[in-house]
Specification:
- The protein is an alpha/beta fold and 373 residues long.
- The chain has 2 domains: 3-199, Probable inorganic polyphosphate/atp-NAD kinase, domain 1 (Rossmann fold), CATH 3.40.50; 214-371.
- Helix content is 30%, strand content 23%.
- It is built from 13 helices and 16 strands.
- The strands form 3 sheets. Strands 10-9-8-11-13-15-16-14-12 form a 9-stranded mixed sheet. The protein has a 5-stranded parallel sheet with strand order 3-2-1-4-5, with helices on both faces.
Amino acid sequence: MKKRLGLIVNPIAGIGGRVGLKGSDGLEIQRKARALGAVPVSLNRSVEALKVLKSIKDRIEVITYPGEMGEGAVRACGFSPVVIGSIRPGKTTSDDTIEAAREMQSRNIDLILFAGGDGTARDVYMAIGDSVPVIGMPAGVKIHSAVFAINPTRAGDLAMQFLQGNLSTSYEAEVMDLDEEAYRQGTIAPRLYGYLKIPFKRRLVQARKSPSRVSEHTALNAIAMDIIDYMQEDFMYIIGPGTTTRPILLNLGLEKTLIGVDVVMNRRVVGADVNEMKLMKLLESHDAKIVVTPIGGQGYIFGRGNQQISPAVLKKVGKENIIVVSALEKIISLNGRPFLVDTGDQEADQMLCGYLKVATGYGDRIVYRVSVG
C-alpha cells in the first residue's frame, strides 16, 4: 500500500523578509511587501524538498491543496497529486492552512509536509495537534519553532526516510510564535503554543531558538569594542540583527534596530532598518563588510531573520568581508554542530561554506565551520 503524504504550502510565507518587514502576517503587510517588490519564496522551497522524493514517487500518494497551496509545486516535480479543498487564488489566509490540515487528518495521512514559518506551524498545530507527524520546510521570516528541518532539502530527506520506514524515532517539538507588531517595535517575546510530532534525526532538524544570557553582557561589549577599534575608514559596515550586534552601535553612541539591519560608515548611521533594495543601492558606491551573529541554539548566520542580507548582497560583499561575532557560550551550546546557511540560493550557500573567523572577545578569534546542513 502506498504511503500518503500531505503537502501544505503557505504561499505568502517569508514575503516580508528581504524587504525588511520582519514578517508576513496580515493583509496590510503582504500588500506593503508586494509594493516593495517582494517575491514569494515558499513555492521554490517546496520544490526543493519534493525533488528529494522523486525517487520514491511511485510508492507514495501526494494529497495537497489547489494551486499555490501545493498543487503547483507537486506538479512541477512530476507528481500526479490528489487535489482536495478549494482556495481563492492570491487571497489565501491562515484559515486555509487550518482547513487543509484538518482535511488531511481526516484522510489518514501518514505525514504532512508544510512550507512556512512559525505562523504556519501554529496554524497546523491548531488544526491537528500532535495527531499526525509533520515536517516543516523553512520558508518564513520568523522561525523560532523546533518543528522545521534545517533546510528544504533536509525536509525531503526526513520525509523520505520516514515514508520508507527507515526512521522510527519521533519527537514532540515546540511550536513557538510571537506578536509581529511587537516584534517590529523591537520586543521579542516568543510564546509556546504547543507541540507537534515530528520524525527526528539529529542534524536534520533545527533546534528551538535560544536567547542570549544576561551573563554575556561583558563579553558582548568586549566584542563590540574589538569591531569598533578595527573599523576601516570609508567602509560600510552592514550590521545584522540581534542582541549580540547591538552593543556595536550602542558603544558608538548610535541607535540599533534590534531586529533590523543597519549600516554604519565612519561611525555614523547611513542606513537604518534597511531592506535588500537599499543595501544594493548603497553597495553601488561603497565597499562593505557584513557583521552577523549566529542564532542561539540553531547556529544560522544567514537565512533566518536577516533575509535583507540577500544572496545578491552576499555575493557583492564577498565571503572575505564577512565578520561573525559571538560569545563563546553561544558557540559551545551548539555542541560541535556547524554554523548554518540557508539563503535559498545554492551558489551563495556554497560560497559561504567552509570556515569563517569568529570574534569572541577583544582580540580573540576562533575559526568555525559553516555548512548547509
